[in-house]
Design goal:
The protein has 329 residues and is an alpha+beta fold. The protein contains five helices and 20 strands.
Length: 329
């Protein structure tokens, strides 16, 4: 079963195909890219029996409507929007059966900002530097290197595996596959970070403010970085450094005292002091914050950050293990 799977009947302003990003090109100044909330993207794929690195739809909070053109197994993860079928809510974080000619609407808002949708077999999409993620800056990868729009048609990438065929049959019969694993806490405003290379550039007062003040995600935020509004921080040294390596989650301090948190499409080097680094486990939580939302930083150590990351890996592995029960004997 291949061919066309999805017709976009209504689309928001920033919906694109994203996978786990481009690996091995940072030394050439090429950003990794990929899904903003990588945990939700991975989960969506695993729930439908895909490899976790397959491309998924990253749907930014705005009304959407999708028409399924053939029977499919789909999964919705993340937040921001509540998918509905025949005016009934579709459960998030579970594999669901979508009959041919089903029309899914996403218009009711939920906590969070980005909804992810995977289908068994994946979406056929353009590859750019070993990734199917859409790079909007260079207009490559994904669906013709651009965001999706009304009347786009998406195709299945590969035929269903034996496991996916069995999962489709089970769901089509009316059965439900319940996977009980901890859901992300999108409502929390606490973002855990570690000390950055230039943390000591901050004066003592600003070091205290960093974790005690609420900061608001500004309208000048994007997939490249979140600019934060709040109490300006002050340094004891000039707020400039020789261009140095940065990555997703790096917290930069600008000359104005405002902070920028680099996100999925982050550049590879920067000339602002790197005062902190968001831990990998909390980057998905931050990715679900929209302009106007408030966050508060919490400082943790490297060991704790590693523990949180390994716990995330363990939870994703539990999804794999549950679905293995559907493998043919």
């Amino acid at each position: 079963m291949t061919g066309q799977i999805l017709h976009i009947e209504q689309c928001g302003f920033l919906t694109s195909l994203q996978d786990s990003g481009r690996q091995g090109f940072l030394q050439f100044g090429i950003s990794k890219g990929g899904a903003m909330d990588i945990r939700s993207a991975y989960s969506a794929n695993l729930l439908v029996g895909n490899d976790e690195t397959e491309a998924v739809l990253e749907i930014t909070q705005a009304p959407h409507r999708f028409h399924f053109l053939q029977d499919a197994v789909a999964a919705f993860t993340g937040g921001g929007l509540q998918p509905q079928l025949h005016n009934k809510m579709i459960q998030l974080n579970q594999p669901v059966f979508m009959a041919a000619d089903s029309v899914v609407e996403c218009k009711q808002q939920l906590p969070g900002y980005r909804l992810y949708m995977a289908v068994a077999g994946g979406y056929k999409s353009d590859m750019f530097l070993n990734s199917h993620s859409t790079d909007l800056l260079v207009k490559a990868g994904g669906h013709h290197g651009r965001t999706l729009k009304k009347d786009d048609l998406l195709q299945l990438k590969t035929p269903l595996t034996s496991l996916q065929k069995k999962l489709l049959a089970v769901l089509k019969s009316g059965a439900h596959v319940e996977l009980n694993y901890p859901l992300p806490a999108f409502k929390t405003n606490s973002i855990r970070v570690m000390y950055g290379a230039e943390w000591n550039y901050l004066n003592e007062t600003s070091q205290g403010k960093f974790t005690s003040v609420l900061y608001k995600v500004s309208q000048q935020s994007s997939r490249m970085g979140y600019r934060l509004k709040g109490t300006a921080l002050e340094t004891t040294l000039p707020c400039e450094i020789i261009s140095s390596a940065v990555t997703q989650g790096t917290v930069q301090l600008t000359a104005s005292g405002e902070m920028i948190v680099l996100m999925a499409d982050a550049q590879t080097v920067g000339g602002y002091p790197r005062i902190a680094q968001v831990c990998a486990a909390d980057l998905p939580v931050l990715a679900q914050k929209k302009p106007g939302d408030e966050i508060q930083f919490q400082m943790i150590g490297l060991r704790k950050a590693e523990e949180l990351y390994l716990k995330e890996v363990e939870q994703l592995n539990s999804i794999k293990q549950t679905l293995e029960k559907f493998s043919p004997v």
